[in-house]
TrEMBL record:
<dbReference type="InterPro" id="IPR017911">
    <property type="entry name" value="MacB-like_ATP-bd"/>
</dbReference>
<dbReference type="Pfam" id="PF00005">
    <property type="entry name" value="ABC_tran"/>
</dbReference>
<dbReference type="InterPro" id="IPR003439">
    <property type="entry name" value="ABC_transporter-like_ATP-bd"/>
</dbReference>
<dbReference type="GO" id="GO:0005524">
    <property type="term" value="F:ATP binding"/>
</dbReference>
<dbReference type="GO" id="GO:0005886">
    <property type="term" value="C:plasma membrane"/>
</dbReference>
<keyword id="KW-0813">Transport</keyword>
<dbReference type="GO" id="GO:0022857">
    <property type="term" value="F:transmembrane transporter activity"/>
</dbReference>
<dbReference type="InterPro" id="IPR017871">
    <property type="entry name" value="ABC_transporter-like_CS"/>
</dbReference>
<dbReference type="InterPro" id="IPR003593">
    <property type="entry name" value="AAA+_ATPase"/>
</dbReference>
<protein>
    <submittedName>
        <fullName>ABC transporter ATP-binding protein</fullName>
    </submittedName>
</protein>
<keyword id="KW-0067">ATP-binding</keyword>
<keyword id="KW-1003">Cell membrane</keyword>
<keyword id="KW-0472">Membrane</keyword>
<keyword id="KW-0547">Nucleotide-binding</keyword>
<dbReference type="GO" id="GO:1902495">
    <property type="term" value="C:transmembrane transporter complex"/>
</dbReference>
<keyword id="KW-0812">Transmembrane</keyword>
<comment type="similarity">
    <text>Belongs to the ABC transporter superfamily. Macrolide exporter (TC 3.A.1.122) family.</text>
</comment>
Amino acid sequence: MGPSILIARNLSKVVPSAEGNLTILQELSLELTQGDSLAIVGASGSGKSTLLGLLAGLDQPSAGSVTLAGHDLGPLDEDQRARVRAEHVGFVFQSFQLLDSLNALENVMLPLELDGRRDAREHARTLLERVGLGKRLSHSPRQLSGGEQQRVAIARAFAAEPDVLFADEPTGNLDSHTGERISDLLFELNKERGTTLVLVTHDERLARRCHRQIRLEAGHMVSPMEP
Ligand SMILES: Nc1ncnc2c1ncn2[C@@H]1O[C@H](COP(=O)(O)OP(=O)(O)O)[C@@H](O)[C@H]1O
Ligand SMILES: [Mg+2]
C-alpha cells in the first residue's frame, strides 16, 4: 500500500430546507492510496455528487474532515482550498464545461498557462494527440461530438498532472462505445501516471473496472469500502 492521498472521516452534509434540516450525507469515511480507483454508485439523489464535491474541496462538510494530498481542508478558506485544488486535483464533469470561445488546443492549454508553463502549447498538443484528437486541435467545442468534447475535458483535466482526478458521470452522456473509449483512457492515464481516480457513475462496466466501489443510499454508504 502506498501513502494515503485522500482521507475522509465521518463526513456529513446537512442543508436547511423548508421542511427542516435535510441530511444529504451521513458520517461517511473512506481512505484512498495514490493510484487507487474508486467508483461511487447509487440511485439519483443518493448523494454522489455531494460526496464528490466534498472530497474535491469544492464544498464544505457540515461535520467531519477531508485530507487531500496531506492538506486538512477543514481549516482552509476558499482561496487556500482553491490552491490545493489547483495543485492536486483535476475534474471532469458530465457537462463538459469547455470554453466555447476557445478551440480544443486552447482549452487544454489554459490550465497549463495559468500554471506558468512555457511549453503549454506543445504539452496540450501532446495530450490531445494522446486522446485521439490530434486532428481536431483548432475545432471549437461546438464543432466536436459529445465524445470528443469529453476527451478534450479529460485532456484538460490531466494537463496539470493532478494527483486525484474526480469525474462526475464521465460517460453519462455518451453512447456505450464512446463511453468505453473514455473509460479506457481514464484507466490508461491512471496506470501510466498513478493518478488516483474517483468516479461517480451509473455505468456498471466502468464501476467494475475500479479497484473499489461504494454504494450510496440516501446519504449512507451501504456497501463498505474495505474488502
Ligand atoms: N445545496 C443543496 N440544498 C438542498 N438540497 C440539496 C443540495 N444539494 C443536493 N441536495 C439534495 O441532496 C440529495 C443528493 O444530491 P446529489 O448529491 O446531487 O445526488 P446524486 O448525485 O446522487 O444524484 C438530493 O436529494 C438533492 O436534492
Ligand atoms: Mg449527481
